[in-house]
Amino acid sequence: MLKLKPNCECCDRDLPPDSAAAMICTFECTFCQVCVDTLLKGRCPNCGGGFTRRPVRPPAMLAKYPASTERVHKPQGCGRAA
Q: What digits encode the pLDDT tens for the residues 21-52?
């Protein structure tokens, strides 16, 4: 099950569970659309993979299976992957 992390790992922007701006890679690294498009150029700085829009969990399921509250912020690792 997706963790639905609460923020962009690069700029620390809040990404609530229903955010259309949340992007994830195959390892569930989470970034905002702005960082993915401008700084990261569509490549995850952690694994080098691409991104897809993070799905939105329906409200009833979000109540039963809440989003993560653990923030991951790595401003030093926000450059493009090699």
A: 999 999 999 999 999 999 999 999 999 999 99
Got the DSSP string for 11-36? T--B--TT-TTEEE-TT--EEEHHHH
* Contact status, residue 66 vs residue 43, Cβ threshold 8 Å: no
The domain made up of 1-66 has a fold known as Herpes Virus-1 (3.30.40)
pLDDT at 32: 97
Burial class (CB within 10 angstroms; exposed 0-12, middle 13-18, buried 19+) of 56: middle
Please give the DSSP secondary-structure letter assigned to residue 31: E
Q: What type of residue sits at position 53?
A: R
Q: Which of 64, 5, 8 is nearest to 36 (CA)?
A: 8
How many C-beta neighbours within 10 Å does residue 34 have?
15
